[in-house]
Amino acid sequence: MIRAHELTKRYGDSTVVHGLDFTVRPGAVTGFLGPNGAGKSTTMRMLLGLDAPSSGRSTIGGRDYTTHPAPLTEVGALLEARSVHPGRTAFHHLMALAHTHGIPRSRVEHVLDLAGLTGAAHRRIKGFSLGMGQRLGIAAALLGDPAALVLDEPANGLDPEGVLWIRNLLTSLAAEGRTVLVSSHLMSEMALTADRLVIIGRGRLLADTTVTELTRAAGGASVKVVTPQADTLRTLLTGPGVRITTAAAGELTVHGTDAAHIGRTAAEHAVPLHELTPGAVSLEQAFMDLTQESVEYRTTTPTGAPA
After folding, report:
1. Do 5 and 21 touch, CB atoms closer than 8 A?
2. Which pLDDT tens digit goes with each residue over 21-72?
3. With 0-12 CB in 10 A as exposed, 13-18 as middle and 19+ as buried, what is 53?
4. What is the full DSSP assignment across the chain?
């Protein structure tokens, strides 16, 4: 379990993380999201003992990271995949890490294979592509078979096969009961991978929720209904607090009531339904709506360009 309690970081007069309080539990992938400048990297560095908090504290497995006698076996971390000696081979880089914790060569060979780097194990890292370097960083994070993982943009630089690999890997690690905290700007991947979300903006906690809850709330509890008797159903559903719009012929978007009530009403009056879908916006749109007041760097549409 990863726990942040009133975690705060100040640099001079600037406070970049404000009293963050959240828990990352085992058995789930938790996405750590926020706009650029939100304080995600600073928070992750504090979790891993690389930056000291100005106040508050964090624990991994119930202890401060710096007090773990064998941290690689407790926490696997990926913050900057390219922070490696370029003259070493992938194999020797991992062996150097393994020697610090008494990890056997067989484990090094296992994580190289797991990351798809067996064929490149004896190549110098300076010749690695961005994606290969990312795979090596993930292999290093997994080296100690840790119970918790803290990964910053693990899909960065990966090709489509690599993105699918990291998605399946994170899901399987969580299914084994590990604690997985992963930051990403790829909302489509988070929608497919994350079970829970911790979202921050300008260093403050904006949401600690599930993907389903966030998108459902952002969707305004709408229901999409497709029926050849749209006018009849509209009349039957009209009432206090119910708002109905028409998106296309035979298609209604209903606000103010739920799918169960719509289905019962249609059945009672023999109105055929071709589709009945509770509405939810995309994770990307829900994230944008939630963080719109916390964006530090805003873009503008060039003059004369389409909005």
Report:
1. yes
2. 999 999 999 999 999 989 999 999 999 999 999 999 999 999 999 999 999 9
3. buried
4. -EEEEEEEEEETTEEEEEEEEEEE-TTEEEEEE--TTSSHHHHHHHHTTSS--SEEEEEETTB-GGG-SSGGGTEEEES-TT-S-TTSBHHHHHHHHHHHHT--HHHHHHHHHHTT-GGGTTSBGGG--HHHHHHHHHHHHHTT--SEEEEESTTTT--HHHHHHHHHHHHHHHHTT-EEEEE-S-HHHHHHH-SEEEEEETTEEEEEEEHHHHHHHHTTSEEEEE-TTHHHHHHHH--TT-EEEEEETTEEEEESS-HHHHHHHHHHTT---SEEEE----HHHHHHHHHTTT-SS---PPTTS--
Residue-level pLDDT at 299: 63
pTM strictly above 0.85: no
Quote the CA–CA distance of 175 and 179 in Å, as a whole number: 10
228 Cβ neighbours under 8 A, 6+ residues apart = 250, 272, 274
Is residue 60 within 8 A of residue 75, CB to CB? The reply is yes
Locate 98 and state its tokens.
């393994």
d(CA 287, CA 185): 10
Beta-strand pair 179-183/28-33: parallel
pLDDT tens digits, residue range 207-265? Answer: 999 988 888 777 656 889 999 999 999 999 999 989 899 878 999 989 888 899 999 99
- CA dihedral 255→258→264→265, nearest 10 degrees, is -20
Residue 301 above 60 pLDDT? no
In a 10 Å sphere around its CB, with 0-12 CB exposed, 13-18 middle and 19+ buried, how is residue 122 labelled?
Answer: exposed
